[in-house]
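Example: Nascent polypeptide-associated complex protein.
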Amino acid sequence: MMPGLDPRALKKMMKQMGMDMQDIPASEVIIKKPEGGQIVIKNPQVQKMKVPGQGESFQVMGNATESSEIEISQDDINLVAEQAKVPMEKAKEALEKAGGDIAKAILSLERK
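Written out as structure tokens, the predicted fold is:
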């Protein structure tokens, strides 16, 4: 919010301009970076704003931690191993090389 401005007045003003803002309950927000790694925001305050003709935008506030490691769940490993018909170790390696992208990992294993 803007300092010195009543939150109710701001919401009213935004509504008059056709903007709609709503709070989104979330326990964690993860931003995956294209070069690998991720930003994790725990217990965030998330707001979604719809602007006519502009689509939606999200505002996320909270304490962020950056990680160069990508967390790969056992479910993801199982799925890749099953779909590509490879051992779990190969599935995990493929997921790590693909930056956690399941589809990319399966495709890379099927090409071999």
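Residues 74-84 form the longest helix (11 residues).
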